[in-house]
Amino acid sequence: MAKDEVILRFEDAGFQYEENKPILDAVSFSVRKNSKITVMGQNGGGKSTIFQLITGGLKPDSGDVFLSHGLTIALARQIIPRDMLDLTVREFFERQFADKIYDIDPKIDEVLEVVNLKGHEKLHDRIVRSFSGGQQARLLLASALIQDPDLLLLDEPTNNLDKAGIAHLTQFLKNYTKTVIVISHDSDFLNAFTDGVLYLDIFTKKVEQYTGNYFNVVREISARVERENRQNAQLEKQIQEKKDKANSFANKGGQMRLVAKRMRDLAEELEESKVDTRKEDRTIRPFIIPSQTDLSGTILSITEFNTISTNPHVSKKGKVANPIVKHKASLTLRKNQHLLLKGPNGIGKSTLLEAIAKGTASGSVIAKDTVVGYYRQDFSTLNFEDTVFDSLLSIMKKSDEHAMRGTAAGFLITGDLMHSKIGSLSEGQKGLVAFARLVLQKPGLLILDEPTNHINFRHLPIIAEALNKYEGAMILVSHVPEFVAEIRIDEELDLEK
Measured in Å, how far apart are the chain's first and last C-alpha atoms? Predict the structure, then answer.
């Protein structure tokens, strides 16, 4: 294939999951060989649907999707499917191929080296579920790379990755010699390697194609919106002038009525000249997470905690174990105190948060009758079979459908979305449901594990402000320094140190 050859083309492609509710409408764009493309757009707008249409997991309802003959494609999804979590690493990689691959272990070693997953030499028999969220993110990328595709599709690849992991992935993509299409909300990450953007407009259901890096495109879109608004404002002024003249001439009667009609006709022509201003992605409304009202004294005390050694121990029989390391601590959280939990991928941050939330963490005590609000990065606290309506109503101490719907609307959860099953939502929409539940729950202890994952970057300042104002006790884990910098942190606990 020539370097400038178009290897992928959407031609008036349309798709809908439900009748008369299009996700994509007459979408057209093309991707050239060896380009590095970003897909941008609102949560639930259809970005992952585009990936499914490329891989053939979905078929367009109208139009066509053309691929170069013999083009090989691999997709690294946002999360590891639930039915693969209990596989061994070897079984997980074997599932990436239609045919049996003999002597796959050296290939696994090679891609684990590329994604910087430490201790990879003896990981083949380890269960996927035992890896941290960040390590699973590395496994997802490796599962695509092992296929050596012509076109690599990455869906939110920085989710759960620590700073070192993001830096490693960024450098890998800079050096990657084949075609890549990435869905991500991490602007700095995208700007490091992007040379083109596909912007999915949630209002028109179409894709706008831009050349340039991420920041260039954002500036271009903002300038376009400003230009269109200015043009329409000028037209609106002229329209009002014509209408005022029409009213004035009409009152004078006689021949002036003809002039008035002409003025009205001119106003209508100017009205038709107005352009449809490009709408910005919708953002969630400012919100607060109300805290439990009967809080006093120490809400959480931590006298000891466990971490997981990032250097696996190999026994004489070849079995791999990640030793548990116990640490002493003297930490208390009271009302209006915020704790940042730090440490690299795989050290046990999510494990510790889960144990604290369940009340099973050795050395951690939560005050009696404290309501715990727990945001898990994998959304496993949500019942995927529940409808959004039932999930939100069930978390309330006293059911109030009117209040529930008002809160949901602030998180862009309206209409038919209320009666969709949680499992059918995009990952970003699940995140917004999880935040809406916290607002309705009114917790005394708020535990947040990577709350920015999957969330549209436009929402993040609003979420940061809400966490700033939260008046209960809070524990936060986040690998996004720009987000953390916007939040008041009173204590830090670095598990690595």
Answer: 51
**Which string of DSSP letters, residue by residue, matches 75-102?**
EE-SS--GGGTTSBHHHHHHTT-SS--T
Identify the CATH homologous superfamily for domain 6-218: P-loop containing nucleotide triphosphate hydrolases (3.40.50.300)
pLDDT tier for residue 407 given thresholds of 50, 70 and 90? very high
Calpha distance 154→181 (Å, rounded): 6
CATH value of 298-494 in 3.90.1150.10, 3.30.300.30, 2.30.30.240, 3.40.50.300: 3.40.50.300
Place 120 in a pLDDT band, splitting at 50, 70 and 90: very low
Query: Among candidates 126, 98, 160, 209, which has minimal Cα distance to 346?
Result: 160
Give the list of residues 6+ apart from residue 347 with CB closer than 8 angstroms, or none.
Answer: 132, 307, 308, 310, 495, 496
Q: Are strands 36-41 and 196-201 parallel, antiparallel or unpaired?
A: parallel
How far is it, in rounded angstroms, from Cα 255 to Cα 258? 6
Q: Which amino acid belongs to residue 302?
A: I
CA atoms of 71 and 349, how far apart (whole Å): 40
